[in-house]
Amino acid sequence: GGVSPRSDDSRRAGGVSPLSDAPLLEDLLRAEAAGLHVLTDDVPLAEAVREAFPERLWLEVVRPGSREAEVRAAAHRLGLRLVASTAAHLLDEEDYEAHRLLTAIR
Hints:
Layout: H1 9-13, H2 25-31, E1 38-40, H3 43-49, E2 57-61, H4 68-78, E3 81-84, H5 96-105
Parallel strand pairs: 1-2, 2-3
């Protein structure tokens, strides 16, 4: 496998990431920006990549709650559109039974 991307939380905080050789997620997004659409509730990530995604970057409200006001305010401040979505946990419908079992075990 390849190297997993990391966020730039460690760079912003001045810390050292155990994945310091891993490419930053925003660098990978910029490199693959052509035709890509991005939905995120990560405001710092949206700020970092918004120039690379004109008209193809949305701030995502996954469910109403404590972060909704923050995401709405950031969307207004950054001039980004909001999109409401739901968290997807399964790639294939057949995985639902395993998901239910794992959820019950927690």
